[in-house]
Amino acid sequence: MDTVSKNKRSEIMKANKPKGNKSTELKLIQLFKKLGMKGWRRNYQISGSKPDFVFAKKRIAVFADGCFWHGHNCRNLIPKQNSEYWQKKIENNRIRDKQIDERLEPKGWKVIRIWECEIKEKNKEKLKLLKKSSVVH
Ligand SMILES: [Zn+2]
Which residues are found with C-beta within 5 Å of the ion, ligand 1? Predict the structure, then answer.
């Protein structure tokens, strides 16, 4: 790998931080508040996984998935350079996501995944659904 593509790679990594995507989480918190959804907690571990938000009483685990890292097809996200590298990385993330779902669901958890690009005021249908599923008390 030459230096140019290496730099490019770290650039992409920086722009798409895999964990602790604060702005996505903060946006979600704002929407929860706006929709009057209460009872969520952060930093709550279930079976070795750490959902972004957990409604513990209702046993609902919410993951806010970054479109790049989790392979959402909303845009053409995979860079042309090193596309094989990225594809593999993203594929592994998707497999891991699925494994988490499969681990949590038999334990009575409902897993809800929200794409980064869906966390928008104008695009909150999924969040409304979350509210409808009687998360709110
Ligand atoms: Zn997306």
Answer: 67, 72, 74, 115, 117
